[in-house]
Amino acid sequence: MKRTSIILFFAGIFLLAGCSSLSNVASSAMPANSTATSAGTSCGTILANLYAQYKATGKIDLNNSAVLLNVAQLTPYYNSLKTNKSNPNYLASFAQGLVSGSRGVVTTQNSLNTVNSLLSLNGLSNITTATNSAATIPGITTELTTLLNSLKK
């Protein structure tokens, strides 16, 4: 009786361990998309720069040319994500790139949430280095602030 209990105990442990690592297996089993990983890495670098600027000033100031340039540089990555939003391989590879490019600001744990947050930045496609629209700036500033607050504390 004790022997059966011990075997069942270890079987349960192995089952639990196998289930908890299933999400890692699923994401690593997908072939990497090098274009998406490269785009994610570049986007992660921009997010890390924005995060540093945000932490230093406590706000997203689109009147600051460095901040505006970083926000404008996010636009092609946002457009690429929108184009590929139904491709889970692209999104997973982009998320991996975010982690490697962000210098630890985006983590493995929050990378897919960050991708989803980027996808929800509705006003981002309207931002350029010449942006001065009173309607666009407050909306994107609020959305970016929400995104940056969800990153590394």
Compact overview of the structure:
The chain is mainly alpha-helical. The chain has helices at residues 2-20, 22-29, 34-57, 65-83, 88-101, 111-119, 136-149.
Would you write up a description of this structure?
- With 153 residues, this protein is mostly helical.
- It is 70% helix and 0% strand.
- The chain is built from 7 helices and no strands.
- The chain has helices spanning 2-20, 22-29, 34-57, 65-83, 88-101, 111-119, 136-149.
- It is globular.
Could you name the key traits of this structure?
153 residues; mainly alpha; 7 helices; globular; disordered N terminus
- Poorly predicted ranges (pLDDT <50, ≥5 residues)? 1-29, 131-136
Strand count? 0
Radius of gyration: 20 Å
Largest sheet, if any?
Answer: none
The geometry reads as globular
Helix content: 55-70%
Q: How much is the average pLDDT?
A: 74
Secondary structural class: mainly alpha
Can you count the helices?
7
Q: How much β-strand is present in the residues?
A: under 5%
Order of helices and strands: HHHHHHH
Head-to-tail CA distance between termini = 51 Å
